[in-house]
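cron nightly-structures :: item 1 of 1
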Amino acid sequence: MSRKKIIFFINSLSFFISHRINIAEKVFENNIEVIIVAKKDLQTIPSEIKKFKFIDINIRDPNFFTEIKNIQLIKKIIQEHKPSFCHFITVKSIFYAAIIKKSLQNTNVVLSFSGIGSIASNKKILSFFSKIIFFSLLKKLLLLKNIRLIFQNYDDQKLIMNYYNFPNHKSYIIHGSGVDLEEFSFKKIIIKENLNFLFASRLLLDKGLLEFIKASQKILDNGFNATFTIIGELDKSNPSKINLKEIHKWIDDKNKFFYAYRKDVKKFIEYSDVVVLPSYREGFPKILIEASAVGRAILTTRVPGCKDCVNENVNGILVNPKDYLSLYEGMNKILNNKDNLERMSYHSRKIAEKKYDINSVNKKHIMIYNSF
């Protein structure tokens, strides 16, 4: 009897490794062959995925001719490998799933809506029409009997479920990608004279980076003792990428520091006192999951995905999106109530243990695959 196969379709190989590799390993342990279809955005294939089959497709390229080529390639891959499961992750790959619906009749389909903020909230004309096309195609895809949906937050689930009369028992909530609670162990906070606020995310405008820059400057201008750190990668293909001149103007190497992309994110979280993500919308941000596991207070926005990480005034503070003054007030509140940080730190860790354990996330995925 041949082994079952699962194909993961996702925009980026690096994203798959950082967010989904544990799920693939768990599936592999359950005697299921793993195939990954993604853009090879790394110079070399890491050793941890060499036991899987990897197929390089430039899913991120918006070029029309590339899109046509990708659709044909994906059809061919499904036809050739005859997988038991096709798991489409991110909106772009779900677009492809909707277009090739007929090719998915004989396999079990899982759709992971890992952040639909850009298509849900973008008011630009092009995005408006993209949204219409997306929901039109998705309507037909959801008619498949052999389909399951995974959402990272309740707002995204509600958004999709309100468009369609989709059965509740085929829809699941999994809060993010999980975290290894042993690797990201609790680190007792030591209150410093100068509290450190950490921004660790891609260097994008819609992550609230400009608001972080403006609010931090206002904190220092008003005489507060604090330091601010930015780490993150510039996503050159993203229309929301920040102009690096904005960051370089901000750096002073005394209170404000920039370290670009770093693999050792945990070290920066451990040094920080507060992890900040002023994003405009998220699926369920990995950095806030990791911050919770280490036991750090969270300062983030009152938007889908972010607000789900915070029990307000218990493990963090929520502020308004796209509003640097609101972010400033949040920072101000923390700086004037330093005694609360140890309590917030404790509750962050407890939330991580209850909701984000990677083992629980993996088991839930296996349960979903077994539900067919």
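cron nightly-structures :: done
The first helix runs from residue 13 to 19.
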